[in-house]
Automatic annotation (TrEMBL), chain A:
Region: Disordered, residue numbers: 129-155
Listed name of the protein: Outer membrane lipoprotein-sorting protein
Keyword Lipoprotein: yes
Regions of compositional bias (Basic and acidic residues) in chain numbering: 133-148
Keyword tags: Lipoprotein
Gene3D superfamilies from the UniProt entry: Lipoprotein localisation LolA/LolB/LppX
SUPFAM superfamilies per record: Prokaryotic lipoproteins and lipoprotein localization factors (SSF89392)
InterPro entries per UniProt: LolA/LolB/LppX, Sporulation_related
From TrEMBL, chain B:
Lineage per the UniProt record: Bacteria, Bacillati, Actinomycetota, Actinomycetes, Pseudonocardiales
Keywords for the protein's UniProt record, in alphabetical order: Membrane, Transmembrane, Transmembrane helix
Keyword Transmembrane: yes
Alphabetical list of PANTHER family matching this protein: INTEGRAL MEMBRANE PROTEIN-RELATED, MEMBRANE PROTEIN
Record-given protein name: ABC-2 type transport system permease protein
Organism expressing this protein natively: Kutzneria buriramensis
Parts of the chain that traverse the membrane: 37-57, 77-103, 124-157, 177-199, 206-225, 256-276
One GO MF term attached to the UniProt entry: ABC-type transporter activity
GO terms for cellular component: plasma membrane
Pfam families registered for this protein in UniProt: ABC2_membrane_2
Length: 369, 283
């Protein structure tokens, strides 16, 4: 009898250990207590970010989470729809801090790897065994927002003041405590719209690493939703020198190597939109609305676009999948609404986009006429 | 050995057979069953079948996922075979040997003899679990070995092209395949442990097979329902895709480690339930 009871106790202990273990494994990585960091003002924080020109050597996982509420679009297929539909996308990134870098986008049974070895950008797709090779310097393209010699002041302190002053017109900027992002203590810089702004957004939070001053996470929060509607940031991050072998790439035996293909595709796209009118900006700050008029017929069935895969699809059909049909005294068309913004695509080619409710778009459309 | 025989006391305390002899006898008993041998041989033929199929179809192109990677890349064959077999046939093998281990013995009436024998219940379960575990390991190893040979014969030994686009040396490739073998074996052990727990409760081997396969199917269905995705971290099957991580370079460990820990939890639950039942069974 005693042996039986002992057996039951041991067995139950095993089961308990297993169940508790599963629970622990399923727990999301806890945020932990907020780290204690020296006080810093928003201005100082922005200034220190601007002074940090170089990204240190690092390896990390970047997760992008999307709760925009867009319906799945089967017509787009592939990577594009993966990024647009709700869910989390992960990428591995490495950089040696001297301009070389590596990004890999893992799929369930495939991977796309991009390696920039200092002179050549290699883009490998395992699914079709293809390497795109281009010798452009992506560095200049990658940082178009880098403070140049233009209007921006070259002195970081002055530039920080300018930026804060610019933002201050429509929003409140403050350092809202600290947080731990990817295991690193970070300051939380919060931008919130002033109450007069007619926007769907509640605030934008940027977590900035306290040591290296690189942005670790960007979260966009909308009204009526406690969870971020969009978030991109590191889920793991190691700041350490990286293996130089990571930043070289040799096309494997039997792979198709395509040289400079990407560039041609990129050049072709602007041609089609060249005759489109420049977008007009209505309003300022958070309730800015972009109004554009596309040449008539762009959205009709007479001109069908071609996707990357080569199959044709009708843009109006795609709009029907994404949005709902609306009409009013201002015209009729499709309304695509997400948690962060609204877009109106009218049948006459007019498009209005903004992080605002539908009514603000209609007002903007009327003001442009 | 001789000394042990000479020193044997005259039955004034219960005899204890050395554990190694018990294990060897269980292994002989398991591997002599025709169904075990047939199952292992048939599973090992799968890589040959895939290899020939892809070689013939590969000239025309087509296929997706890992099949596309396999063309001209023989070392992917063992990994691909294990990935495909892990979803259904390897759990079936685990369930079959777990069903034979306890429920099968019970249905023949031979479990009673084992329960009466002067062998601790814990020892009995350990020996039975060892038999199941070894069968699974032999099958997984067999699939991998046949896969490597088929891949080398059909494609050559240039090395393994990873999903990340670089080429691993022969030794590295074998290391990755070895890791996949260990990982897959452990996952199937977790399934077999649950099957062993069911096996302890019934004397019908068929019930064990049905219950285990139904469980695997239900897990698969839950994975497909978006509204139930909060359950995903608890499901054993939901992390089975992480075996493809061994084909990436540098290899991400987090998925493999996490799924191994999850399998360890299932193993603890299965063996815990089985132990509680076996130790409280009347002799």
């Amino acid at each position: 009898m005693n042996g039986k009871q002992a057996g039951l106790v041991v067995g139950a202990a095993g089961v308990l250990a297993g169940v508790v273990g599963l629970g622990v494994l399923a727990l999301p990585a806890g945020a932990g207590p907020a780290p204690v960091l020296p006080q810093v003002s928003a201005e100082q924080l922005v200034q220190s970010v601007l002074t940090t020109k170089t990204v240190p050597a690092l390896a990390g996982t970047v997760s992008a989470t999307n709760n925009l509420g867009l319906p799945a679009v089967p017509a787009l297929g592939g990577q594009a729809s993966k990024f647009l539909t709700d869910g989390t996308t992960k990428a591995q990134v490495w950089t040696d801090g001297k301009g070389k870098g590596r990004v890999s986008l893992p799929g369930a049974t495939s991977e796309e790897t991009m390696v920039f070895d200092g002179t050549t950008l290699w883009d490998w797709t395992s699914q079709n065994n293809t390497v795109h090779k281009s010798t452009d310097t992506p560095e200049q393209k990658a940082h178009p927002d880098k403070p140049g010699s233009g209007e921006m002041a070259t002195d970081p302190a002055a530039a920080a003041k300018q930026i804060i002053a610019l933002i201050d017109k429509d929003s409140t900027v403050k350092v809202d405590g600290t947080a731990t992002v990817a295991g690193r203590p970070a300051y939380e810089l919060v931008l919130a719209p002033k109450p007069t702004e007619k926007t769907l957004l509640r605030e934008v939070r940027i977590a900035i690493d306290s040591e290296t001053k690189i942005p670790l996470q960007l979260s966009v929060l909308a009204n009526g939703n406690a969870q971020p509607v969009a978030q991109i940031g590191f889920s793991t991050l190691q700041i350490a020198p990286q293996d130089p072998a990571l930043f070289t790439f040799t096309p494997p035996a039997g792979a198709n190597v395509v040289t400079g293909e990407d560039k041609k595709v990129a050049d072709k796209a602007p041609d089609q939109l060249k005759n489109a009118a420049k977008p007009q900006i209505v309003g300022s700050g958070w309730d800015t609305v972009l109004v554009e008029k596309l040449p008539a017929g762009t959205l009709g069935g007479d001109r069908s676009a071609t996707t990357k895969g080569g199959e044709n699809f009708d843009p109006s059909k795609l709009l029907g999948q994404l949005g709902k049909r609306v009409s009013g005294p201002w015209g009729s068309g499709y309304e695509i609404s997400t948690a962060v913004g609204t877009a109106l695509v009218l049948d006459d080619g007019r498009i209005a986009v903004g992080a605002v409710p539908e009514q603000a778009l209609i007002t903007a459309l009327a003001s442009v006429k | 050995m001789t000394a042990a025989v000479l020193d044997r006391p005259a039955l004034d305390r219960p005899l204890r057979a050395p554990l190694s002899r018990l294990l060897a006898s269980e292994l002989r008993w398991t591997l002599r069953r025709p169904r075990t041998v047939i199952a292992i041989v048939l599973l090992s033929l799968v890589p040959i079948l895939i290899g020939i199929g892809v070689t013939i179809a590969g000239r025309r192109g087509g296929g997706g996922g890992l099949f596309a990677t396999l063309v001209g890349n023989g070392f992917v064959l063992p990994i691909l075979s294990l990935t495909l077999l892990l979803t259904m046939l390897l759990p079936l093998l685990g369930a079959m040997s777990a069903a034979d281990a306890l429920a099968g013995e019970a249905s023949h009436g031979t479990l009673r003899g084992l329960l009466m024998a002067p062998v601790g219940r814990g020892r009995l379960l350990a020996v039975k679990a060892f038999g199941v575990a070894t069968t699974v390991f032999i099958a997984v190893l067999g699939i991998a070995v046949v896969g490597v040979i088929t891949g080398v014969v059909l494609v050559g030994t240039d090395g393994m092209i990873t999903l990340s686009g670089n080429t691993l040396s022969f030794g590295d490739a074998l290391g990755r395949i070895g890791l996949a073998v260990l990982w897959v074996t452990f996952q199937v052990w977790a399934v077999a442990a649950i099957a062993l727990a069911v096996s302890a409760f019934t004397e019908h081997p068929l019930v064990v097979m049905a219950a285990t396969l139904a469980g695997a199917l239900v897990f698969g269905v839950i994975t497909l329902i978006p509204q139930l995705d909060w359950m995903q971290p608890y499901l054993l099957t939901s992390s089975w895709t992480s075996v493809t991580d061994v084909l990436r370079d540098p290899m991400p460990w987090d998925g493999l480690v996490n799924s191994t820990l999850k399998a360890a939890c299932y193993l603890a639950i299965g063996l815990g339930v089985a132990y509680a039942k076996v130790s409280s069974k009347d002799g």
